[in-house]
Amino acid sequence: MWLKSVPAAYSHFGEVAHLAKKDEDGNISGIWGAMSDFSHSFQPWEGFQKGLYLVGVECNEDAQAPDGWTKWVIPDYEYIYVERENDNTFSEVIQYMKDNGIALAGAVHDFTCPQTGKGYMFFPIRKL
Questions:
Q1: Is residue 76 classed as helix, strand or coil in its secondary structure?
Q2: What is the pTM of this model?
Q3: All domains of the chain, ordered by start, with CATH?
């Protein structure tokens, strides 16, 4: 389930918390951000700088979005993923991909692990 702004998502998180996938201990599996283009088609940001940042949680496919929320189904991709070590991680990985002839195939995703607090970035490189 996704809301279009980060503050709105966090202040209304209770509306979707019960829909979020949980691990074996009942903890939310993860919090996601999707860096989609303005058309909502999960293409890369314009010039890697302009687009939408959609915040949400991973839910079961049959989950229904509550009022004010939108359900997005992210296409399947093969990803390169890295731990978000600093504010330059995004640009460093984009440069690495460019230097190695690897094309970005869709919207980059942020993942925050609730158990560790660590952040990861997923860079789609091939649609499945």
A1: coil
A2: 0.78
A3: 2-127 (3.20.80)
